[in-house]
What does this fold into?
Amino acid sequence: MIIANSLPNGFVVFLTAENGWAHDIDKGVIAESDAEADAMLRTAKQAEHDCAVVDPNLITVEIVDGQPCPTEYREYIRATGPSVPTPS
Amino acid sequence: MYRYDEFDTRLVQERVEQFRRQTGRRLNGEMDEDQFLPLRLMNGVYLQLHAYMLRINVPYGAMCSRQIRQLAHIARTYDKGYGHFTTRQNIQFNWIQLKDVPDAQGDLAEVEMHCIQSSGNCIRNTTSDQYAGVAKDEIEDPRVYCEIIRQWSTLHPEFSYLPRKFKIAVTGSPNDRAAIALHDIGLRMHRNKNGEPGFEVLVGGGQGRTPFVAKTIRDWLPPEHLLSYLEAILRVYNMDGRRDNKWKARIKILVHQTGLEEFRRLVDTEWEQIRDSVLKLPQAEIDRINAYFAPPDYEKLDDAGEAVAAWRADNADFDAWVRVNVADHKTPGYAIVNISLKSPNQPPGDMTAAQMDAFANLADEYSFGELRVNHRQNLVLADVEQLRLWELWEKLRALDLATPNIGHVSDMIVCPGLDYCSLANARSIPIAQEINERFSDMDRAHDIGELTINISGCMNACGHHHVGHIGILGVDKRGKEFYQFTLGGSSDQAASLGDRTGPGFPADKAVDAVETILNTYIEIRKDGERFLDTYRRMGMAPFKEALYGTF
It folds into this structure.
């Protein structure tokens, strides 16, 4: 999957099958091959050039309970938010 | 407190409008990220793991109630309703949107606050003793010199593109509460043999992946030469500091590689050229700044020790709070109150907008409308009448701000770690919260006694792990969070770097390791001996044996 930060608000976004960006990881598209991943990354870099997103990266996910889940804990936290409740 | 003059006001307002234009050009595509990055950093805007982060300077940790109310407003209006106080006495907001930053900075300017030089390779916020102006052991108020340094270093044209960031700390007391030996430059006020106040100047301290305790480059510097001497150091650093390798670019590396004697010679050579220049501080200017920090209108009070003692005898919780969180004030009848931001209920250093507003009211009611932030991520009300301690304590308790743990096991310095920070390798906050929970019994915590636990989520050491009595460093080990321990660090007047215990521990064993270390200390300590004293007497061996025999 491609993860990035939205330029205007900085929030984490995922590349969708329609070459748009979604905040929910389950709306992101998963590459099924290296070629697809390369193409998605090119799309993301173009979106970065077009000032839609910042710092797009390709991450590895696995499907857990039907949902994509980053395999590295850094990306898992990036995708799901802080692991501790925010003060309220 | 210092109040902006016309020059300060215009400078800050112009900077807000300049950054508003720059942000607009970034959002409409006229600038790419590479072009925008140095501009946003100069204005305190980072891109973290989940969102942008805005860091706001709190000069030498001093604020008035109007300012913290405005911070509450910013937290509610532009963020998620809370802020995070940092080890550099600043505050940062973790969920700010780039499009809102100029408006937030405009709101800050209304209360004489800004984000200029809160990031980037420049001179950062000068930090100081949270007891400045009220400490019994103080020689002179360090805030005066912090403010002079602030004015000198703000938009200093020669030092806007240093090899790396540059941090200065000042203390006016022999007891160092500002960790000056862990700064690029540390200034310690003391008297020479003639009884004249001046500064011991330390240089080359810092943490990160290559930690150093600063070395004394000058034993005594007259205050009139403060700026010329700082400028001489900065010039040598700016010319000779490494720019080829980010990890070797801090002044500590230059001092280490050059050698202190040669570095001193280079500085003195430079200083001779400028010591009697316009940088020489006239006494009238020192006096002018000093007037901003005149003591408030204290009542003429007697010491209220008997009344406070009676309350303490009646209530064990109040007794513990006074013993641990309240410090002596130089003025009879007054006390310094430390407010712990290390409640078990929220991340260390965090404060909600509601707490900020309520705390602003307490500052108005009990401490002449002023408050301070310290480098251990706590707050201070510096001027509280002793006879009002009881009622203040009750109000703080209602706000969950009366945890009696200052200087104890749960009063940890904790960086945001991987829960927020894009540089981190491991989480810090969950470890801190587990420690807080494990040692939530305050009787046990008080029996353990004076202790600092500092936690960093990576080698950048924002959580000051090198100088914690117990330091905890989060690392990534083959995709899993591990925690390495150091023992024996200290950031006070006898600063020292901790020694590593050995291999790290997985996250689910890290707090067990803390408990093992503390149980070992309790077994081997002598009467009245702090953890640090015991470690310095006994060394690593008993702790190492306990740790690695157990796991």
